[in-house]
Structure to design on (520 residues):
């Protein structure tokens, strides 16, 4: 607790605040402790190298990596536009920001349904893709699209924050030294925001790895094709709880690694 | 004005370019209307109180701000429509704006590399610039490891390594500690004497004007209120601002 700022503030309210804070913390941490306490530690090695586990893990890592790469390629330019939009009129500026924020506030199942209605065989765009012989839903490609959809804001906001913090006048200096706009972007802007890009990519990967709702709606649950770790863990929880916990532990370890790998200021909740 | 130009023309070869600035530029509601010429070999100090529009003029010359009308000619080229990277101007910014992620050597090499020089040729050229600015020992350092005076030398070397046709300096002493200013200023004056093209120094310091410039243009509220040599300004200040400036 910071030192009491008002002279009249006694310890009473502070204690209440403390108690509620501890309850809140317990709500956040105790479920994770429960996983650790319930884990079938002796059988864990066998569960982790079970074919279904490795298949789901492999698929999750592969699709997560591709989604993260897609988020980088698409998201960095979007972050640049978003950072520069401060000079735009209010309405388009807010619309742009709202559009980027949508996947953060939208229930993933709704996002998956929206993707299905756009890209499904009879969807708004999907019917034309079907004419070309391209089918997206319920393929590994659909998993990647669903993950990219939900993970993109994490990358965009991390990079945008870094861009706003960077001294843009250094770009003017680069231009005066003969660098074209593309050269300035490549040799000055990108290196300056590299820490933000790295943090964004890590968050993005973590979000993609945990994706469930949009994936199961848009891509289904075909073993080896679209059954990623979270989906496998959920399905296992209906039949074999130990298998489910083993899969959950893998996801938990990845999340903790992400948390340790990031400095506090890059976590979305910490930035203002 | 015309007398000075012809005197300069007689002394200097015709190949030395002159910078002609006659334009209107605006930032929001604020307008600047500078009119001046800068002759190679006669560094020009652009002076004026805070908010007079000096930096706006500099940004317009450098191409970071579009002008509304008029033109900027350098050695017969019209710069006004050109993007910053095509103007061939060396700019030394007030706080130097070195690339924080690049070493001193890579900062100096930046412009040469952007112009597509081959690696070996670029390295040789960079080495020559580092030597000339006494930066060999600092070559591997990063900007945050430099003193203000060192950073200024890197910024100047970086700008000159592009072989610009004219040089613009924005408040070159403002970012330096007071106790080192005299020494760094003398060094800078020596380097400016070696530069063959027109030089514009934006400053509000009488010491900078006296040490670095030959000609002076005074900008107040966006317009030129006096021009001439430092000696002529001292003798006959046209405005209260100039009178205060020349008294130091």
């Amino acid at each position: 607790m910071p030192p009491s700022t008002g002279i009249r503030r006694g310890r009473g309210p502070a204690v209440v605040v403390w108690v509620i804070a501890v309850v809140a913390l317990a709500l956040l941490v105790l479920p994770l402790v429960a996983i650790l306490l319930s884990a079938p530690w002796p059988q864990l090695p066998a569960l982790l190298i079970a074919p279904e586990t490795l298949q789901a893990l492999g698929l999750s890592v592969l699709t997560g990596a591709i989604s993260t790469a897609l988020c980088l390629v698409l998201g960095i330019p979007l972050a640049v536009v978003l950072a520069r939009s401060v000079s735009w009129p209010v309405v388009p500026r807010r619309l742009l920001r709202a559009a980027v924020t949508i996947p953060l506030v939208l229930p993933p199942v709704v996002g998956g349904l929206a993707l299905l209605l756009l890209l499904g065989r009879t969807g708004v765009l999907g019917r034309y893709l079907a004419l070309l012989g391209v089918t997206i839903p319920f393929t590994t490609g659909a998993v990647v699209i669903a993950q990219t959809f939900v993970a993109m804001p994490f990358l965009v906001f991390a990079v945008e924050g870094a861009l706003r913090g960077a001294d843009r006048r250094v770009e003017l200096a680069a231009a005066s030294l003969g660098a074209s706009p593309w050269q300035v972007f490549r040799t000055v802007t990108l290196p300056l925001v590299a820490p933000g890009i790295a943090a964004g990519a890590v968050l993005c990967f973590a979000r993609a790895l945990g994706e469930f709702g949009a994936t199961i709606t848009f891509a289904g649950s075909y073993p080896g094709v679209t059954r990623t770790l979270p989906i496998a863990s959920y399905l296992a929880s209906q039949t074999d709880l130990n298998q489910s916990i083993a899969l959950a532990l893998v996801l938990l370890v990845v999340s903790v690694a992400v948390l340790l790998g990031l400095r506090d200021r890059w976590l979305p909740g910490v930035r203002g | 004005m015309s007398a000075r130009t012809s005197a300069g023309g007689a002394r200097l070869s015709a190949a030395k370019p002159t910078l002609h600035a006659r334009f209107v530029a605006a930032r929001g509601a604020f307008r600047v209307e500078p009119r001046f010429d800068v002759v190679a070999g006669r560094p020009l100090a652009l002076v004026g109180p805070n908010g007079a529009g000096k930096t706006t003029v500099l940004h317009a010359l450098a191409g970071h701000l579009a002008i509304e009308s008029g033109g900027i000619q350098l050695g017969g080229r019209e710069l006004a429509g050109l993007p910053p990277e095509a103007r061939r101007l060396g700019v030394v910014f007030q706080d130097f704006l070195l690339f924080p992620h690049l070493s001193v050597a890579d900062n100096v090499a930046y412009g040469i590399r952007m112009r597509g020089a081959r690696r070996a040729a670029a390295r040789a050229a960079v080495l020559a610039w580092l030597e000339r600015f006494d930066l060999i020992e600092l070559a591997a350092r990063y900007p945050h490891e430099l003193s203000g005076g060192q950073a200024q030398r890197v910024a100047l070397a970086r700008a000159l390594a592009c072989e610009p046709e004219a040089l613009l300096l924005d408040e070159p002493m403002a970012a330096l500690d007071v106790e080192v200013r005299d020494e760094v200023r003398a060094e800078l004056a020596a380097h400016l004497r070696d530069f063959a093209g027109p030089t514009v120094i934006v400053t509000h310091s009488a010491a900078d004007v006296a040490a670095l410039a030959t000609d002076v243009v005074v900008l107040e509220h966006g317009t030129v209120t006096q021009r001439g040599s430092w000696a002529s300004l001292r003798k006959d200040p046209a405005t209260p601002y100039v009178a205060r400036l020349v008294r130091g």
